[in-house]
Design goal:
The longest helix is centred in the N-terminal third of the chain and has 13 residues, at 7-19. Helices cover 32% and strands 0% of the residues. The chain is globular, with a radius of gyration of 12 Å. The protein has one helix spanning 7-19. It is mainly α. InterPro entries: Met_g_lyase_put.
Length: 40
C-alpha cells in the first residue's frame, strides 16, 4: 500500500501518476467518496 502521510501528498501523487500516463494525461483526478469505504 502507498502511505504518503497526508491527504495533500496522496492527491499530488495521484495527479503525478495521471500526468505521466500515455493516454488521458490531460484528465485531472478528482477525489470523492466510494460506497462501501469509510474514507475518501
Amino acid at each position: 500500500a502507498v502511505q504518503l502521510g497526508s491527504r495533500e501528498r496522496l492527491l499530488a501523487f495521484c495527479d503525478a501518476v495521471q500526468r505521466s500516463c500515455p493516454v488521458g494525461s490531460y484528465v485531472k483526478p478528482i477525489s470523492g467518496t466510494t460506497p462501501g469505504y469509510a474514507s475518501e
